[in-house]
């Protein structure tokens, strides 16, 4: 599993430095609905799963969005779970 390039922080301004990193607010807000999210960069593949980064154009909150059926139910929660695992493993 590749690491997400999304960095969740309250300290830094939300910005896109794709493909190196995407700085995102830690929490999604009311504005972060599907119609406000735009794909950042191209679709990538991780172990056979296609995903892309989707960013809210209002506040900059970004998630890693998987197209694969097994992630279909909650792409957002999978992404947050990965971030938390990444933090505790350090
Ligand atoms: Zn938003």
Account of the protein in words:
The protein has one helix at 75-89; strands at residues 6-8, 15-17, 21-24, 37-46, 49-56, 62-66. It is an alpha+beta fold and 90 residues long. It has one domain (6-89). A three-stranded mixed sheet has the order 1-3-2, with no helix packed on it. A hairpin with a 5-residue loop joins β5 and β6. The longest helix has 15 residues, at 75-89. The model has no long low-confidence stretch (mean pLDDT 83). The protein binds zinc ion (ZN). Residues 29, 31-32, 56, 58-59, 61 line the site of zinc ion.
Name its key features.
3-stranded antiparallel beta sheet, binds zinc ion, alpha+beta, 3-stranded mixed beta sheet, 37% strand
Detail the topology: elements first, then pairings.
Elements: E1 6-8, E2 15-17, E3 21-24, E4 37-46, E5 49-56, E6 62-66, H1 75-89
Parallel strand pairs: 1-3
Antiparallel strand pairs: 2-3, 4-5, 5-6
The protein binds zinc ion.
The site of zinc ion has 7 residues, from loops.
């Amino acid at each position: 599993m590749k690491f997400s390039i999304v960095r969740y922080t309250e300290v830094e301004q939300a910005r896109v430095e794709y493909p190196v990193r995407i700085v995102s607010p830690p929490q999604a807000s009311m504005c972060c609905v599907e119609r406000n999210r735009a794909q950042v960069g191209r679709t990538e593949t991780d172990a056979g799963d296609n995903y892309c980064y989707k960013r809210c154009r209002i506040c900059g909150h970004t998630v890693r969005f998987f197209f694969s059926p097994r992630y279909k139910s909650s792409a957002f929660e999978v992404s947050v779970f990965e971030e938390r695992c990444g933090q505790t493993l350090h």
